[in-house]
Automatic annotation (TrEMBL):
Spans traversing the lipid bilayer: none
Protein name: Holliday junction branch migration complex subunit RuvA
Sequence ranges assigned to domain DNA helicase Holliday junction RuvA type in this UniProt record: 1-60
Domain Holliday junction DNA helicase RuvA C-terminal: 149-192
Location of the region described as Domain III in the Swiss-Prot/TrEMBL record: 148-199
Subunit (UniProt): Homotetramer. Forms an RuvA(8)-RuvB(12)-Holliday junction (HJ) complex. HJ DNA is sandwiched between 2 RuvA tetramers; dsDNA enters through RuvA and exits via RuvB. An RuvB hexamer assembles on each DNA strand where it exits the tetramer. Each RuvB hexamer is contacted by two RuvA subunits (via domain III) on 2 adjacent RuvB subunits; this complex drives branch migration. In the full resolvosome a probable DNA-RuvA(4)-RuvB(12)-RuvC(2) complex forms which resolves the HJ.
Gene: ruvA
GO cellular component annotations of the record: cytoplasm; Holliday junction helicase complex; Holliday junction resolvase complex
Family: Belongs to the RuvA family.
Length: 199
């Protein structure tokens, strides 16, 4: 199994590149819209090796995330590697995840070779596979943003009470990271820990 290809970009064609890896040139089918490299530059591709009776084909992606989505897409009946490549070539990862989670199959019918029934099947079969990943990304983003806002507001309040940022910043961050989400609660806890009252 060829997991990746690193070498010099020898040529770029309509749907594939040839990568010069010393004594061997690998033809790798890629979503060409994502390739910004120029001929002669080094290129690194995460690859999927597709084996059939009549030969072996390599599909390559600049980002590991693209490969992961591609591999999930081709598990759907009616979507082979070429259609999977078309999905990555015409839609961003965000569009793919959003389309699946919102059950908007029409976005996938824009891809050559994918009709209405296949698009509906893709959404149906992949919704659960992408659900956990999408929720984790959303939760992490929301959690990070929320914690950051709470920390900033609590720090502003404490500075207004006369404390210096370097005296209380780490305490506030620790409290926010341990689950305290209310600004006034954090301020009260800091005041208690520092001996009540401002300066």
């Amino acid at each position: 199994m060829i997991a990746f290809v690193r070498g010099i970009l020898h040529s770029l064609e309509e749907d594939n590149v040839v990568v010069d890896c010393g004594q061997i040139g690998y033809r790798v089918f890629v979503p060409t819209i994502t390739i910004t490299h120029q001929q002669g530059q080094e290129i690194f591709l995460h690859t999927y090796q597709h084996v059939k009776e009549d030969g072996i084909t390599l599909y390559g992606f600049i980002e590991k995330k693209q490969l992961d989505v591609f591999k999930k897409c081709i598990t759907v009946s009616g979507i082979g590697p070429k259609s999977g490549l078309g999905i990555i070539n015409q839609l961003s990862i965000t569009e793919i995840l959003t389309g699946i989670q919102s059950e908007d199959y029409t976005i996938f019918t824009k891809v050559s070779g994918i009709g209405k029934k296949t698009a509906q099947r893709l959404v149906l079969e992949l919704k659960d596979k992408f659900k956990e990943e999408t929720l984790i990304q959303t939760t992490q983003k929301a959690s990070s943003t929320g914690a950051s806002n709470v920390v900033n507001q609590a720090l502003e309040g404490l500075i207004g009470l006369g404390y210096k940022r370097n005296e209380v910043e780490q305490i506030v961050k620790n409290m926010a990271n341990s689950g305290a989400a209310d600004v006034s609660e954090i301020i009260k806890l800091v005041l208690k820990e520092k001996g009540l009252g401002g300066r």
